Structure formats: structure tokens, C-alpha cells
């Protein structure tokens, strides 16, 4: 029998609208492991990859892979259950304990993704008597999580402390205030002013929540994140982060913070209560990644040195790189078409980078985002800078 066709409204709009707006997202198929060098399906190998969140290169680390295989063999493929019915194994409890220790918090709770952790926390914690104050450029999953809760919503201008203070004053009438921000913002590579945010939170009796997806494992002297980098680990109450980026890259997310809050999430957080437990192999990957990071900060330091190499060479070549000291290095170009043709031409030269334009970033602020990893060699970085310089000259982005 023929497969059912799509319903009539889907046959034209909205897909045609998406194509017409030039915002169609296509996916390149990778035929190798994630890593600094890739083979694309149907194409040659030898592509140098600068667009994964594999900041520490742990996605294909041999010890991480071995830990996953061992967990798979010992604990099976999966639990066929949510956590509270028949889905908690000793490895889940061990990983939660390890995450809390890594972040120096009381407890932690695992989710299938950080998207789920963000979707679950606001509704579980906040009531209609409370208020949440959110940076306007927060990640989509924070925005969706906030939409799901019944608290009063305030949106402050990106990293604008005057605006946050004004909104905190307005929110004094509510029972509880929660300031929510990304620790590091993934489009600009900029870092939230957490010291100032925590000072304001103290002044106006608010809690601070940070999403550390682009910080955990590598920001701060020991890779604990933005709160360590800015010296406010004791002032940020709630940290959400992912196991799907620097911490092995498999999947999974978590909340870490006060034990009472984690207890509440286990009782009330819907993505936790109504979704399957993390598969053992995934738990094995993350657990080993954390072991490696707690043993030594050498990997994080090597990534920082490579980031510094890329940023300084690109700046010397005449490019503007947004953000500061972060492995997300947006090469600012302005024009959407320029970003798109340059990214295509970079791939022709074996360098895989992605152009971003409106509506993902504001109009007139198109860019190519480069992400540095600890497993890039100095030669990889230099080849990327050379290709940018050639392609930039060819398309008029450089004199
Ligand atoms: N928060 C931020 C800032 C992110 O960049 C992402 C991933 O893109 C997420 C949350 C979601 O993380 P996960 O992939 O674990 O669902």
C-alpha cells in the first residue's frame, strides 16, 4: 500500500514560505565519527570541522567510547521506563552525584536533554505569584520553558544591567524573583555579566539561574563554567547544562542546585516524570568525560590556547571576531549573502563552517560561526585562517 500523503495545507505553505524567506535549513550527512576531521557522505574526506560543540574533543575520545561500551554491556540498551517507575540504575545515581560534585552543588537531576531540563524547571518551581526575568537573547529552550510556567514574565535587554534593575524593581511586588540567563550566548560568544547580575539579585532578593551549555567543562580555571570564571559559584542557585556538547557529546541534560529544589523537580518536572531514562551508554560517556575533566584541566587549557591562536590571527588578518576568549568565534560579516557564499567557498577549500543570518541573528549582523575544539591542531587553525583570508579577499570582505 502507498504511504499516506501529507495533508493539503502542508503541500504549499508553510514549506514554500520557509524556502521563499531563504531560511531553509538543510543537513549535511557525515559519514565518519564526530571530530576535527570529517568525511561527508558522498564526498571526500579531509574536511576540517569548525562547527560542532565538541569543545573538548571528547565526542570520539577512546576512553569515553570504551566507557559507553562497558555501560552498554553491563546495564543494557535502555530501561524501557521512566525513572520513578522502573528506570533508575546505580549509574544514573552515580552520574547525578558526580555532576553535583563537579559543580559544587548539593544535588543534581538528569534529563534526556538540556532542552527538557529547561522545559521542566520554570513550571515546577514558579507559581502565578512569582516572577521570572529573562535575557532577551536566551536560548529557545529557556524561552519555551518560561512560556510553560504561570509566573509573571519580564524580558530584559541583552546583558543590560540598567534594564534588569528596572525590571527587578517592577517585580518587587511578587513573592519570588528568578533571573534566568545563558552563561555564554551561542550566537555571539559573549559571556553574561554574572557578577553584576548576582549583585542585583542580592539587592532585590532574587534567585539566579544559568544555562551553561556553552560553558560547562571549559570556562573558568577548572572548567566548572561561567560562575567559576566570574567567581560567583556560591551566588548562582541553579545551573542547567547539557551532556551533549563538551561533556562527551552523546546526549542528556541536567539541573544542579539545592537538594530541596532537585527533590521538587523529581516530583513535579514533567519532562523528567514522563520521559524515558537516559540510556546506559549515554550515562557511561558523560560519566567518563567528567572523570577526565576532574583529573586535570589540561584539555580545557589546550582548547583555550587554540581559541586564542584563532582569534588573534583572524583579527590580525583584518576580520572582526565577536565575543571574548570563547571558543565560539563569530566572524562578523554583516551581509547575509556574503556569509552564505563565503561559508560555501570555505567548504570548497575543505573548511566546514556555517553562516548565520536573519532570523537566527539580527538583520545586518550575518556572520560565519567558527567553533574551536581542543583536538584541532595548530595546523588546522592556521589552515582555517588562510582559507578565510583567501575567501574574504575574493568576496570583498577584506581589502
Ligand atoms: N541551552 C543552550 C544554550 C543550547 O545551546 C542548547 C543546545 O543547542 C540547549 C540548551 C539544549 O541542549 P540539548 O541539546 O541538551 O537539548
UniProtKB/TrEMBL annotation:
InterPro entries listed in its UniProt record: 2am3keto_CoA_ligase (IPR011282), Aminotrans_II_pyridoxalP_BS (IPR001917), Aminotransferase_I/II_large (IPR004839), AON_synthase_class-II (IPR050087), PyrdxlP-dep_Trfase (IPR015424), PyrdxlP-dep_Trfase_major (IPR015421), PyrdxlP-dep_Trfase_small (IPR015422)
Q: Where is the Aminotransferase class I/classII large domain?
A: 47-388
Pfam families given for it? Aminotran_1_2 (PF00155)
Biological process per Gene Ontology, one example term: L-threonine catabolic process
Question: From what superkingdom does this record's organism come?
Answer: Eukaryota
- Catalyses which reaction? glycine + acetyl-CoA = (2S)-2-amino-3-oxobutanoate + CoA
- Single GO MF annotation: pyridoxal phosphate binding
* CC terms in the record's Gene Ontology section: cytosol; mitochondrial matrix
The protein's UniProt keywords, in alphabetical order, are: Acyltransferase, Pyridoxal phosphate, Transferase, Transit peptide
Q: Which cofactor does it need?
A: pyridoxal 5'-phosphate
Which E.C. number(s) belong to this protein?
2.3.1.29
Spell out the family assignment given in the record's similarity comment: Belongs to the class-II pyridoxal-phosphate-dependent aminotransferase family.
* Name of the molecule in the record: 2-amino-3-ketobutyrate coenzyme A ligase, mitochondrial
Amino acid at each position: 500500500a502507498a504511504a499516506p500523503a501529507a495533508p493539503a495545507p502542508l503541500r504549499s505553505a508553510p514549506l514554500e514560505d520557509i524556502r521563499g524567506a531563504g531560511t531553509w535549513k538543510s543537513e549535511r550527512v557525515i559519514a565518519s565519527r564526530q571530530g576535527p576531521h570529517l568525511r561527508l557522505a558522498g564526498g571526500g574526506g579531509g574536511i576540517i570541522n569548525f562547527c560542532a560543540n565538541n569543545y573538548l574533543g571528547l565526542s570520539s575520545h577512546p576512553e569515553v567510547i570504551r566507557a559507553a561500551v562497558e555501560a552498554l554491556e553491563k546495564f543494557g540498551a535502555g530501561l524501557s521506563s521512566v525513572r520513578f517507575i522502573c528506570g533508575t540504575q546505580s549509574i544514573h545515581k552515580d552520574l547525578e552525584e558526580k555532576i553535583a560534585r563537579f559543580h559544587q552543588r548539593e544535588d543534581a537531576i538528569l534529563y534526556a536533554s538540556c532542552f527538557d531540563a529547561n522545559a521542566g524547571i520554570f513550571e515546577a518551581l514558579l507559581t502565578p505569584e512569582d516572577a521570572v526575568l529573562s535575557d532577551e537573547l536566551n536560548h529557545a529552550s529557556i524561552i519555551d520553558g518560561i512560556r510553560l510556567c504561570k509566573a509573571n514574565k519580564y524580558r530584559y535587554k541583552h546583558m543590560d544591567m540598567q534594564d534588569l534593575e528596572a525590571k527587578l524593581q517592577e517585580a518587587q511586588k511578587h513573592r519570588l524573583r528568578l533571573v534566568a540567563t545563558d552563561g555564554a550566548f551561542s550566537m555571539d560568544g559573549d559571556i553574561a555579566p554574572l557578577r553584576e547580575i548576582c549583585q542585583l539579585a542580592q539587592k532585590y532578593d532574587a534567585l539566579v539561574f544559568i544555562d551553561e551549555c556553552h560553558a560547562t567543562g571549559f570556562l573558568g580555571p577548572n572548567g566548572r563554567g561561567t560562575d567559576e570564571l566570574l567567581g560567583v559559584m556560591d551566588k548562582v542557585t541553579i545551573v542547567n547544562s547539557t551532556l551533549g556538547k563538551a561533556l562527551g557529546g552523546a546526549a542528556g541534560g541536567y539541573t544542579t542546585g539545592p537538594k530541596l529544589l532537585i527533590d521538587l523537580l523529581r516530583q513535579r518536572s514533567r519532562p523528567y516524570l514522563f520521559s524515558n531514562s537516559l540510556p546506559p551508554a549515554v550515562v557511561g560517556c558523560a560519566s567518563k568525560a567528567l572523570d577526565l575533566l576532574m583529573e586535570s584541566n589540561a584539555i580545557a587549557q589546550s582548547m583555550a590556547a587554540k581559541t586564542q591562536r584563532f582569534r588573534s590571527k583572524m583579527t590580525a588578518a583584518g576580520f572582526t571576531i565577536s565575543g571574548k576568549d570563547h571558543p565560539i568565534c563569530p566572524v562578523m560579516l554583516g551581509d547575509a549573502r556574503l556569509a552564505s557564499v563565503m561559508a560555501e567557498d570555505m567548504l570548497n577549500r575543505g573548511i566546514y563552517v556555517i553562516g548565520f543570518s536573519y532570523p537566527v541573528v539580527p538583520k545586518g549582523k550575518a556572520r560565519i560561526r567558527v567553533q574551536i575544539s581542543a583536538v584541532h591542531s595548530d595546523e588546522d587553525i592556521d589552515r582555517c585562517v588562510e582559507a578565510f583570508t583567501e575567501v574574504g579577499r575574493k568576496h570583498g570582505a577584506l581589502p
